Amino acid sequence: MLRLHPYRYHRPRELAGALELLKVHAGNVMPIAGGTDLMPNMKHRLFTPGHLVSLKGVEGLYGIEERDGEIWIGACESLTSVASAPLVKRYYPSLAFAASTIANPMIRNQGTIGGNLCLDTRCTYYNQTHFWRQALGFCLKRDGDVCHVVKGGTRCVAAHSADTPPVLITLGASADLASTEGTRTIGVEEFFTADGVWNTARKPHEVVTRVRLPKPPAGLRTSYQKLRERKSVDFPILSVALAVAMADTDTVASISLVVSGLGAKPRTIGQLDDIAAGRQLDAGIIEAVAEQAYRQCHPLANIIVDSDWRRAMVRVYVRRAFRDIQSKSEAAA
Known about the structure:
Largest sheet: 5 strands, antiparallel
Radius of gyration: 20 Å
Shape: globular
Number of helices: 13
């Protein structure tokens, strides 16, 4: 049985109190919301904070509402709430679907949108017990100085495995962060870095308070596709988020495509508007976009699934995303 180490659990009722606790215990404290990823990692001794600051009782971190031309989602809203919220389903069906595919109902009931945004990266050589990792000599991400994925590598390449961030990027979402030093807003795309040890721009003493999404333009078509070893519970080994803005019924205005599950941050596929903008969305455009994604994506051996096969699946899942938006468009016609 894997046991938790001793720690002190704090339950503040106000955000200011939570932020003060994170400041006072800096270096030996972590915030916790749903805890669906943090608690298993603590049992594996990947994190051993002496203090946990619960955000679940902070009222200001809840709510899904329309404000100032945006949809605001409180960071402590459960994944179940995000998946079922009428505003999210109406304006951002791909986000609702992505949230609904995470793990299982019990995890979605407990896990939060803020937690999913801040989800730790994963790797074959990292997400193991302390005994297992010690036998291997540890790794660059925790307790060691060697990357077992990239021999001689100096930067951790553990995989980003969260479902909602790729979709949030395609929707132009931003995140609000707070600390005792003040508040700031950062685009979800800029929120992530390429360092798998700490792959977000969030500082240890900061808390994500909400996610903000702009109202989608008329005619925006979106899809989320997820490859995993089993159709439930498992983390994605590849995910594809797609948003296509249409100038009219048949003509593409712009395309946003984000592929994740491969490296330490979601990858936004570049130069797609050069391929598709101002043209009809036909089989040729779809194939050109799929090929562009394939060229730009290079999975690493950070997950126990063949890297070449995962790369080959990039084309397949990009095509599936386009087929999905086309079938939805036909159904709505």
